[in-house]
User: Which sequence fits this backbone?
C-alpha cells in the first residue's frame, strides 16, 4: 500500500536521513556549548567557503528569526523595509519585524512574487522628512514564496538600485539552494551576483531537523551580532547538532534541490493534460501553484494535504519535499484524474 | 583509555540515547507542522497529566525564550520582576527580559541562590507611584543556579506572599526534574505545592537535543500565547521532534534526575577528604560549588573542563550530566589527589 | 500693510489669546506637579462632563503620543490596527506605532479619507492563524486628514462592525471639535454616537500652546494607564498649564471650530469662479484640498505658505487656523486672481 | 499675610516671569512648525555657543525623554548603562530606559549621589561574553539627585575611565546650570571639562513652562536623531515657544542658578542652630537633605509641602525654586523653631 505524503509544505517532511545521520555522528560524549565546539567551527569554515571569505554566519532556530535578525542588524527602527505584499516577512511572521525591530514594512505589489527595481524607486518618497519612516533596506525572497526565481539580471538591477539609494539588501533564502540550482550557479556564484548585505540561509525546509543561518557579508554587521542573537533568544546551546546538519547540507544541496525541483517539474508535466487546471506562476523551485475547479479541492485534500493559497481565485499550493517521489505524484495525479472524469467538473464536459 | 567528559555544564553533554531514539522513531514520512501533528498532541496530553489538567503548554527553542516569554505573558512592561542577583534571568540572558518585555528586574541578594518571602516584601515600595515601576511578578529558579532546592515550606511562604500582594509567580525550571527528585515529589505534586502561574520546564539540560516548554496554569494566560510565541520568533516548525523527546522525558525523568543527583553526591563524597576544598552550597541537584586553592584551577581544568563561578573567592562549578559516570568522577578526583599531594598546596602541608 | 498668515497647517498659528491668558492666570506661585494639582482636577471633571462620566482622561504632550498610547492601551503587539492609507498614524508618525506598540497597521484604501464598515470586514482574514497578526482595533480620524467628517450613519456602521467582530475602536480626534461643529453635536453627543474605546482629543491644532488628551471610555483601560504614560515619556510635570488651556477649550470650542470651518467655507466660496481649480474633497472641517495648475504653485506659495498634498495630481492643502481672517483669505484670493488673469494659465484663456 | 510656597520640588514652581514673557513675545501670528521657524534656529545657535560649535541640540518635552533618548542614541539594546542606585534613570522613570531602549541598567551604590571611576571599572565584567549585557555607557547626574556637584577632578577621572574602556558618557543635567554656578564655570567650560557624548539639558526645573534639550557632542550621533525623536513621540510642533524660553534661559541662567543656590545656602545656615537636624549631604545646588525628628514631619508638612526622601532614616528633601525667597525660608524656619521649642522633641530637652 502507498503511504500518502503531504504536498502542504516542505516542512511537513521530516529529517533527511543524511542529516539525521550527521546528528547521530556528532552525538559522542561532550562538547563545549553555544557555538564554541569544533563541529561548529568546521561548519563556519564551510559557510565562508560557500558564501565568501568576508562573510560571517550565525545559527538561529527558525526562519522568522533569521529574517528578523538579519534586518535588525541592517536597519534602525525608523527605517523601513521594502518588500513584497506576499513576502513571508509581511504575511507570515505575525508582525515579528514590527515587534522585534520596531520598523515599518513598505509593501510592493508583486508579480510572480517579485518586486522590481523601478518599484523600489517609487517607494523612495519623503526622504529626509522626519514625520515619515525612511527606506533603509530592500528584502527579496529567493526563490519567491510562489516558487519563482529572480534572474541574474533582475538581481543585478535590484542591487544597482539599492547601491544608488544607499539601501541595504536582504535575501530571505529559506529555499536559497533551489534558486542556485535553478540558475545553475554555486551558492557563492549566486551570492556574488545578488550581493546581499545579509542572507537568511534556510535549512529546515530542505530537510534539516531545524536550523537556519544568518549570513552577513560585512564584518561590521557581524561584529556584535552574537549579543543581538542572544538577546533575541536565538542562541542555540548544543550548537554541534545544527552545525553537523549544515556541513552535510553544503555537500548535499545540489542533489536535494535538484530532486525537489525535478519533482515539481514532474508534477507540472503531469498536470498538462488537465485543461481545467491553470498554472499561475512559472515553476522554478519546488512548488506548483494551480487554480482548480472549486469542487475538486475537498476530495483532493482528502487524498493528499495541501493549502489553498488564494481563496479569491481558488489557487492552491502544491509543494514538493526532499522525499517526494514520482510514485507520490502519480498517486496524486490519479486522484485528479478521477475527479476530472466525473460529472460536474470533469474534462469530458469541455 | 578513559574519555574525559566536561564538568562545565549539563549542556555540554549531547543527546540522551533514548531521546535520540525518540527522534528517529517519529521521523517517518510527513506530518503537519507548527504543532498540529499527532505527536505534539500526545505530548501536550502528557503535559496536562504531569502539570495538571488546567495547565497549557507550549514548546519553545531554548531556556532564554521560555523564561522571557513566560514573563511577557505574566506582566506589563511597567511592572517589574523580582528575582535573585544570581538568577539566569538577571545575569545570563544578555538583557533579553529588558529588550523583549521592556521591564525592569528588581534584584534580591540571594543566600544559596534563594530569595525569601520577607525579601519580596522589602521590594514592595512606592506602590501606585507612577514614577516607579510596579512589582508584578516573582521569579524563582528551582533548583537554583547554585544547585540548591527550595523546600516545600519555602515555596509555600513565597506563594503566600505572592498571593497577598497580587504578584504573579514564575519558576525557572531549567532543571525542574532535579528539584522534584530531591523533594521526592512527582512533577504534579511539586507544582501543586509551588503553585506558579507559569513555569519554564527545561529539556535541553536534561539530555534533549533542544527544547523547553512554557507551561501556564491559567487558561487566560495561554489563550493568545501562540501569537506571542510566533511574534517572538519561537514557533518550531517540525514540532514532532520536540514532542517526541518530551514524551520520553516524562517517562525517564526520575531516572535521569536520580542519576545526575547521585553523581553530584558521589563527587561531593569523594571531595570530603580534601580539606583545602570548601563546599559553598548544599548539594541538592546536579552541581557542586567548591572553592579550591587558586593554583589548582589551571591543572584541573586541563584534566576536565569547568567554569570558575566566582573569581573573587575562586569558587568553581562542577556540574554532572545525564551521562556522567563514577569513572569520570574517579578520574577527576585522581587529578585532585595529585595536586593535593604536591608541594605548594597539598594536604600534606596542613 | 497686511501680514501674511500661513495656510500650511493649523499648527503654524500660535497660542489663542484666551489660552495664553489661561496659562498666565494659573501661573501664581506653587502647585503640586504631575497632575495632582487643583487645576488639573478641575479640568478632568470637565473631561467627564464632555465625554461622559465613565470616561477617564490623561494629558500627553502631542498628537503622536495621544494616538500611539491610546492604541497601546487597546491592543497587544500581535494585534493589528486597521486604518486608512492616508491616516496620520500610517504616514506621519515615523513608524511610532510599530516602534512603541510593536504592532502592524492594516491599511485600507480610503475615499475622501474615510474607511467603511465593509472594508473593515475585508481585512478580517486568517483569524486565529498564529502566523498572521490578528485584527484588534479600528482607528478612524474624525474629521479625516482631508477635512471630511464621518456622518452619524457611517460612525454607527463602523461601531456595529467593531462590536460584531470584537474590534476596539479608536478615534484620532486631533481636530475633533470641528467634527462636532460640522455635525451640530456636542462633544458628548458625538462621542455617544461614535462610541470609541479611546479618543485622541486634540488641543495643539486648535490653538493650545501644546497638549493633547488620551480619553478612555472604559475604566479598565484607564486603570494602569498612568504607568504606561510615564514609561512612554509622556507625563507632563507642570500639569496645571495644560489643564488650564483645556478648561478654556471646553468653553471656547464651538466658537473656535465654528470660525475655522467658516473660514474654510469662505475660501471655498471664493474659489468657485476659478474654473482651473478643482476641489478634491468636500469641505467639512477647516481645510480645502484644491488641485491647481502646476505653474501657479510657486508664485502662490510665495504669497502664502502651504503644502502640496499630492504631487501626482498637484493637489494642495489650504488649512485655516483659529486666527485666519476673511482679510487673509481675500489677500490670497487676490494672488490667485492675478495668476488666473495671466497668459499661460489664466481663466481668460479658456 | 505670607503665601506658603512648596519645598517639594523645583517643578512645583510655575513659569519664571521672563520665560512667560518670552512665550508671549513670540506669539505673533504664524510660524513654521516642528523646528523650522526662525526662533528655533536662533535658539539652536545659542546652544552651539553654550555647548560648543560641534554640538547639536534637539528639544524634547520632558526630562524622562531627554535622558532616555540621549541613551538610545548612544548605545545598543544589548549594552548596559552604568548609573547610580539613586539616579532618576534608575528610580524615577518607571523603567522607561528598559522599555524604550531595551537595555539593562548596571547600578552602582552611590555616596552623596555620586559614582566614582573605580566603581565603573568594577562593573566591567564578562566583557565579550555573549550571555551578558555589555557596558556601553556611563550616566551621571550633575548636580546629583541629592544636590551635590561632581568636582572637576571627579569629572576628569570619570571621563578618563570612559575613554579607556570605550564607554560613552551621558550627563543627566536636569539642573545643569546649578553645577556650572557652583563650580564657577560657564556652561561651555563645564562641558569641555566633563566631555559628555550626550547631555540632557534641563529647562522645566529652572522655571520653564516645559522643555528639555538633548545635546550631542558628536555630529554622527545627531545625524538621524530627528527620526528617533519623532518615532519616540517627542517632536514638539509649536517649537518656537520652547526655543524662546531657552533663548532667555541662556541669558538668565547665572542669575537663576545663583539665586536658587543662595536660597539653599540660606536655609542651610538657618538650620545650623537646630542640633536635632542633621544635614546628610553637602549643599552644592538648590536642595537640602536633613534628617529631622520623626514627630516634626507632619506638622512641618502642614506648614510647607516637601517629600520624605528616605523613610529608613527620616531624611527629607527641601528644595528651593527660582522664586523661593528669604521670607519663605524664614517662615519655614519659624515653624521649625516652634517645634524645636516644644516639649517632646525640642532643643531645650538636650
Assistant:
Amino acid at each position: 500500500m502507498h503511504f500518502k505524503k503531504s504536498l502542504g509544505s516542505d516542512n511537513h517532511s521530516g529529517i533527511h536521513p543524511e542529516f539525521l545521520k550527521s546528528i547521530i555522528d556528532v552525538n559522542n560524549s561532550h562538547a563545549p556549548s553555544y557555538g564554541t565546539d569544533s563541529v561548529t567551527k568546521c561548519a563556519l569554515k564551510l559557510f565562508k567557503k560557500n558564501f565568501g571569505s568576508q562573510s560571517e554566519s550565525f545559527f538561529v532556530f527558525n526562519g522568522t528569526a533569521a529574517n528578523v535578525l538579519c534586518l535588525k542588524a541592517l536597519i534602525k527602527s525608523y527605517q523601513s523595509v521594502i518588500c513584497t505584499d506576499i513576502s513571508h516577512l509581511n504575511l507570515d511572521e505575525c508582525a515579528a519585524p514590527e515587534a522585534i525591530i520596531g520598523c515599518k514594512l513598505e509593501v510592493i505589489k508583486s508579480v510572480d512574487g517579485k518586486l522590481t527595481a523601478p518599484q523600489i524607486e517609487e517607494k523612495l518618497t519623503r526622504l529626509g522628512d522626519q514625520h515619515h519612516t525612511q527606506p533603509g533596506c530592500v528584502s527579496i525572497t529567493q526563490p519567491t514564496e510562489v516558487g519563482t526565481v529572480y534572474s541574474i539580471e533582475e538581481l543585478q538591477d535590484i542591487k544597482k538600485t539599492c547601491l544608488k539609494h544607499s539601501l541595504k539588501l536582504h535575501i530571505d533564502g529559506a529555499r536559497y539552494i533551489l534558486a542556485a540550482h535553478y540558475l545553475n550557479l554555486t551558492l557563492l556564484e549566486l551570492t556574488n551576483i545578488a550581493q546581499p548585505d545579509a542572507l537568511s540561509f534556510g535549512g529546515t525546509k530542505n530537510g534539516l531537523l531545524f536550523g537556519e543561518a544568518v549570513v552577513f557579508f560585512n564584518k561590521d554587521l557581524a561584529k556584535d551580532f552574537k549579543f543581538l542573537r542572544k538577546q533575541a533568544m536565538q542562541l542555540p546551546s548544543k550548537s554541534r547538532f545544527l552545525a553537523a546538519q549544515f556541513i552535510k547540507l553544503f555537500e548535499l544541496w545540489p542533489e536535494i534541490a535538484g530532486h525537489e525541483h525535478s519533482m515539481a517539474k514532474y508534477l507540472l508535466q503531469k498536470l498538462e493534460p488537465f485543461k481545467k487546471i491553470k498554472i499561475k506562476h512559472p515553476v522554478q523551485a519546488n512548488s506548483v501553484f494551480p487554480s482548480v475547479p472549486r469542487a475538486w479541492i475537498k476530495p483532493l485534500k482528502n487524498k493528499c494535504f495541501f493549502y489553498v493559497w488564494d481563496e479569491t481565485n481558488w489557487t492552491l499550493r502544491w509543494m514538493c519535499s526532499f522525499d517526494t517521489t514520482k510514485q507520490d505524484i502519480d498517486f496524486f495525479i490519479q486522484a485528479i484524474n478521477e475527479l476530472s472524469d466525473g460529472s460536474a467538473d470533469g474534462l469530458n464536459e469541455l
User: Anything to note?
Assistant: Chain A has a mean pLDDT of 95.
